Amino acid sequence: MGWDWFMSALPYGEQWKDQRRLFQQHFHPSNVTVYEDTIVEYVHEFLSDILQTPQDFLAHVRRIPGGAAISLAYGIKVERYNDRFVKVAEHAVNAITAAGVPGAFLVDIFPILKYVPEFIPGAGFKQKAKEWRQDMLAFRNDSFAEAISRIELGNARPSFTSRAMEGINASNAEYHTKLVQDTAGMIYGAASHTTISAIYTFLIAMLHYPYVIKKAQSELDRVIGQSRLPDFGDMKRTPYIMAIVKEVLRWQPVTPQAIPHRLMEEDVYEGYVFPAGTIFVPNAWAMLHNEEDYPEPMVFRPERFLNSNGNINIEIRDPNGMAFGFGRRICAGIHIAEATLWLTIASVLSTFDISPRVDKDGKDILPKLFYQSSIVS
Ligand code: HEM
């Protein structure tokens, strides 16, 4: 499908190191000015969108991380409806998340099938891969070309691309340009569907557990008051909101099977020998629903992360160590994801109530907890 440049799909090696280093240099957790303003901009627009057309909430949610990712990566401000860059990006990323589930296609298990000619019955996956490759190319190339053209015209908003292209010189131009293009392309792919899934989970959790809304609103009223919206300075002072963020990521993990890792060298674990090349599919779902760490794991209960003083209890296993992957490949954008989720949740609960539709007898219609199967749930 042509995604071999995508950071999560890269094998451990120079190309991966260069991408990860470039990403981390730009989005270092200490450099909050690079991303916080953009998140605030999209979350505030989301609030006004919800006020005007609450029935379109699913689309409005998608625009927060999707729009923020495109702005952060390319300096392109995303339109409210039918943005062409978002459309292309969503199309491409939908395909990779569906096809990325280990075993989704027989060829994942029997790689030799990739040599089967396209006309043989059952080889439809090859045609699909071809189409998806076109989507991927449009996604990676168009937004980057647009960002470069704005930089050349001098009217680009500062972004990952504009800053990273400053480091370019004649001796490394070709390699560096491709590195910037690949890393920028990865940002939407890694940031959007994952964060959207978590925000959807937050909304459905509020319908099923309305007491959480009341408790959160009382914390927000106490800490922030009613005359302004939450800002990042309030993050440390609102442990209940942070506990909701953690419970969202634990209760319905965004990537229940994480991302598969391949062993580079033979290794031994608890007496089992694993040859180099072994593929591990971490069962993040099971870890995040382990009853020893999280009693009654199917219940959404943010309080499980708090101590008796109402602060985050550091003795409870932090879901971040499982919900965002593992080892040196752990999500490089955890701080951006957490910031986006915290601000979205705090802002929504500061300004709105969330309640289910009611039927003609006035009874709540609770949506089913149904998740589509894909690498991003
Ligand atoms: C709720 C939101 C998110 C979740 C649940 C999530 C989860 C993950 C997971 C499970 C991985 C694979 C880790 C592994 O291979 O073990 C990953 C990788 C990655 N994520 Fe996230 N992510 C989220 C948001 C973001 C955001 C907002 C960004 C950037 C703006 C980001 C950037 C990355 C990058 C760069 C990688 C590749 C790391 C590597 O292969 O070295 N993620 N993420």
Summarize the structure.
The chain has 13 helices and 6 strands.
Give a structural overview:
The chain is mostly helical and 377 residues long. The protein has one domain: Cytochrome P450 (Cytochrome p450), CATH 1.10.630.10. Helices cover 52% and strands 4% of the residues. It contains 13 helices and 6 strands. A two-stranded antiparallel sheet has the order 1-4. A two-stranded antiparallel sheet has the order 2-3. The chain has a two-stranded antiparallel ribbon with strand order 5-6. Helix 4 packs antiparallel against helix 6 and helix 8 packs across helix 10. The longest helix has 36 residues. The chain starts with 13 loop residues before the first helix and ends in a 12-residue tail after the last strand. The mean pLDDT is 93. It binds protoporphyrin IX containing FE (HEM). The site of protoporphyrin IX containing FE has 26 residues, from helix 1, helix 8 and helix 13.
Topology overview:
Layout: H1 14-26, H2 36-52, H3 57-74, H4 84-99, H5 106-109, H6 124-153, H7 160-166, H8 173-208, H9 210-223, H10 239-251, E1 261-262, E2 267-269, E3 272-274, E4 279-280, H11 284-288, H12 320-323, H13 334-351, E5 357-358, E6 364-365
Helix pairs in contact: 1-8, 2-3, 2-13, 3-8, 4-6, 6-8, 7-8, 8-9, 8-10, 8-13, 10-13
The structure holds protoporphyrin IX containing FE (HEM).
